[in-house]
Design goal:
alpha/beta, binds flavin-adenine dinucleotide, 12 helices, FAD/NAD(P)-binding domain, 7-stranded mixed beta sheet, 26 strands, 2 domains
Length: 525
């Protein structure tokens, strides 16, 4: 019996368990389906792709996507301490300030969330109105410094785009280098940042290799979870709350397995209905990425990262290609003038990134696709079976809304325009799998054939429909969801930082602390 049972030690779960257990008078049990984060490819940044489709990955795919020629799209998720923060590409982008304001949820405006971004942060560049030092999460400049990424930023300037040295500062628009969740060239997951320093606390228990199967609800109140470690069943009770931090695919799956979801589906699968909640698993959003890959003959891409001199440099200086996170540089642009904020993020990686990152690079290359930030299309996560170990049925419905396709075509044109700039000539000897032409018809066909996920699912237990603004599941007591699934709309950017900030704020809400205040008056809009 613990006060709080937290399910899922991912980006959010590690933060929450660490913050809640700062109070020595409460007991916290953090339960993770995967193992400890000992694999080298977690900590050596360039290794992230080698974790795909391994035992550290939930290894999901969408069902056949109707607007993508019935292709199934690969959806990796970390199944290990640190969750997807142990397997992601470490880009630290918070989102655009209007994202949080548009959520329109009490307590969640940009001004109210900024203190929580900053409480986490230990920024290598020091303090500023937007950044802080001394927090657990290291935010650093990249140490790979690949010349192809510099050429990409220069090309953007040549094409007339502004440069931006801080995508989390006064404005998001423009091109530049990403800051990364790394410390000294190593990945700084939430397990490394928040959990490891808390492991000695007697009031914090961390259980790995237990997959939770359902939440037990008695008289409308969550009282325990049941799960399995191999074939050993176990029940872990919570006297105060059960908190689901299992991510945008698995939190709604767990709610449905526990009888909270669309009654028709649950009944058809033989799951007793606790609460008919048609919104659980709906509103699924993601950023789709259109890959643009340009090949050349210069042996400087990440294909050459494991050469002895680079290994030596990594060991001695914690620098060089082994610290590469993938997208080192990028930029935020608007595909049309009337938009209130960027709708496209470019991500430039010094490697051939094809087939969702599953394809083995065959050439030296630079990849810089547009990621579509404000999709109108919505998908869903539903149970495929009452078996908790079965994969859920995930349908993203990418481009179900035709206007999403129009924006992707425009963004692809911008990418092709960047590729023609002088600065990139050296690294653009040919395009891998190019579109037949730049006509609307050919680009629409290209996007449908090659687009893939950039792995940012959110929205499936959204604030306002499934949980309230304190992240409590509506209609059930002592049950919350705290992870990327509670975002009503996906942020314009990479969602790890926002997920961490959500967990930071949730910790204060749960423990009854007064909301953090910050001097935001001076922050320019
Ligand atoms: C390849 C890749 C690259 C990415 N790159 C970036 C990036 O550069 N920057 C960025 O900001 N974002 C990036 N993201 C996205 C970002 O990492 C996620 O949005 C974020 O980690 C989501 O956090 P979460 O807490 O919602 O879920 P997760 O971090 O996925 O945590 C969920 C945890 O719950 C556990 N769990 C699930 N079900 C159960 C169960 N039944 N029982 C017990 N435990 C369970 C999981 O194993 C996992 O540890 C990337 C994602 C991927 C896959």
């Amino acid at each position: 019996m613990y006060d709080y049972v937290v399910v899922g030690a991912g980006s959010a779960g590690c933060v929450l368990a660490s913050r809640l257990s700062q109070d020595p008078d409460v007991t916290v049990c953090l339960i993770e389906a995967g193992p400890a984060d000992t694999a080298e490819n977690i900590h050596i940044p360039v290794g992230f792709g080698k974790l795909f489709r391994t035992h550290l990955d939930w290894d999901y795919d969408t069902h056949e996507e109707p607007s993508l020629g019935r292709r199934r799209i690969y959806l990796p998720r970390g199944r290990v301490l640190g969750g997807t923060s142990s397997t992601n590409t470490m880009v630290y982008v918070r989102g655009n300030r209007i994202d949080f304001d548009e959520w329109n949820q009490p307590g969640w405006s940009y001004g109210q969330l900024l203190p929580y971004f900053m409480r986490s942060e230990d920024n290598e560049r020091g303090e500023s109105p937007y950044h802080a030092i001394g927090g657990p999460l290291a935010v650093s400049d990249g140490r790979s410094n690949n010349p192809m990424c510099s050429a990409f930023v220069e090309a953007a300037a040549q094409a007339g785009y502004p440069l931006n040295d801080d995508f989390n500062g006064a404005t998001q628009d423009g091109f530049g280098y990403f800051q990364l969740t790394q410390r000294e060239g190593r990945r700084c997951s939430t397990a490394a940042a928040f959990l490891r320093p808390a492991l000695d606390r007697p009031n914090l228990t961390v259980e790995t290799n237990i997959q939770v199967h359902r939440v037990l609800i008695e008289h409308g109140r969550a009282v325990a979870v049941t799960g399995y470690r191999l074939d050993q069943a176990m029940t872990i009770s919570a006297s105060r709350e059960v908190i689901l931090c299992a991510g945008a695919y698995n939190s709604p799956q767990l709610l449905m397995l526990s009888g909270i979801g669309p009654a028709g589906l649950l009944t058809a699968l033989g799951i007793p209905v606790v609460l008919d909640q048609p919104h659980v698993g709906q509103n699924l959003q993601d950023h789709a990425l259109v890959p643009l890959v340009f090949t050349h003959s210069h042996p400087i891409s990440l294909l050459a990262a494991n050469q002895p001199q680079h290994v030596q440099r990594f060991i001695e200086e914690s620098r060089g290609p082994l610290t590469a996170n993938g997208p080192e540089a990028g930029g935020f642009v608007r595909t049309s003038g009337g938009l209130p904020a960027p709708d496209v993020e470019f991500l430039a990686a010094p490697v051939m990134f094809a087939d969702s990152g599953l394809g083995t690079p065959t050439h030296h290359a630079i990849s810089f696709g547009p990621s579509m930030l404000t999709p109108r299309s919505r998908g869903s996560v539903l149970l495929a079976s009452d078996d908790p170990t079965a994969k859920p049925k995930i349908s993203h419905n990418y481009f179900a809304d035709e206007t999403d396709l129009d924006s992707a075509v425009e963004a692809t044109r911008i990418g092709l325009h960047l590729a023609r700039q002088k600065a990139l000539a050296r690294y653009n000897e040919g395009q891998f799998q190019p579109p037949a032409s730049e006509s609307d018809r050919d680009l629409r066909g290209y996007v449908r054939s090659y687009v893939h996920s950039i792995f940012h699912p959110a929205g499936t237990c959204a604030m306002g429909t499934v949980v309230d603004a304190e992240l409590q599941v509506l209609g059930v007591e002592a049950l919350r969801v705290v992870d990327a699934s509670v975002m009503p709309t996906l942020v314009r950017g990479n969602p790890n930082a926002a997920t961490i900030a959500i967990a930071e704020k949730a910790a204060d809400v749960i423990s009854g602390s007064a909301p953090l205040q910050w001097q935001v008056a001076a922050v320019a809009r």
